[in-house]
Design brief:
Layout (H helix, E strand, L loop, with lengths): L7 H18 L4 H8 L3 H8 L8 H11 L3 H8 L9 H5 L1
Helix pairs in contact: 2-3, 2-4
Length: 93
């Protein structure tokens, strides 16, 4: 199965997600977060650098829990256009 190429907006959203995770990780190492979340450190590295712009839901959920973020925090930071809050409908879904 061939996946369609990601749009520019999907790439931007992936960059915002990576930045959010990197900021939330702070001084903790990727290995520490990998051990707590169960997500391989290489996968975390790829998400933080934008190489995986659309990670699986359960990957994001595991990282959010390990980093003390709520899924609503992630939606607000990543779903809307840069600098804009996510639509309310996305938060209630």
């Amino acid at each position: 199965m061939v996946r369609p190429p990601l749009t520019h907006l999907e790439h931007e959203r992936g960059q915002r997600l990576g930045s959010l995770l990197r900021e939330a990780r702070g001084p903790r190492s990727m290995a520490d977060i990998a051990a707590v979340s169960g997500v391989p450190a290489e996968t975390l590295r790829k998400i933080e650098t934008g190489r995986i712009a659309t990670p699986a839901f359960f990957t994001v959920a595991a990282l959010a829990e390990a980093l003390g973020l709520s899924l609503a925090d992630i939606v607000r930071a990543c779903a809307g256009a840069p600098g804009n809050a996510a639509p309310d409908a996305a938060l209630s879904a």
